[in-house]
Amino acid sequence: MDFGTIKRKMNAKDGSGYKNVREIYSDVRLVFENAMKYNGEKNDVHIMAKTLLEKFEKKWLQLLPKVAQAVICFCKIFSSLLDEWNFLIYNFGGCTYRNSQILPLDENIRKKIKIESHSPKKI
Fold this sequence. Notes:
This protein has 4 helices and 2 strands. It is mainly alpha-helical. The protein starts with a helix and ends in a 10-residue tail after the last helix.
């Protein structure tokens, strides 16, 4: 593994690139670990790789909460969109889709959107 390969995989548009940030993290660590493995402890390459790996780890730990926050934000947005989708597609038929089951529409929601009560549509 080398930084050129990492850069190419990060910029890949054909689906051959990284699937998630853990893959990038793993490859960057591999570059530094290989540099240390194949160069003696007193070698400049080993020393620089060790130093840069330590810096990379510190930066990664600073970035990780931001990545986690972005994932949480994405999940909330996705969940909200899914709720809206379910509402639009299923609620007007008198039922809603949740956890792979069709459930009766909550009566309070029915009152809010003024849907007359009737049997759920079969899907």
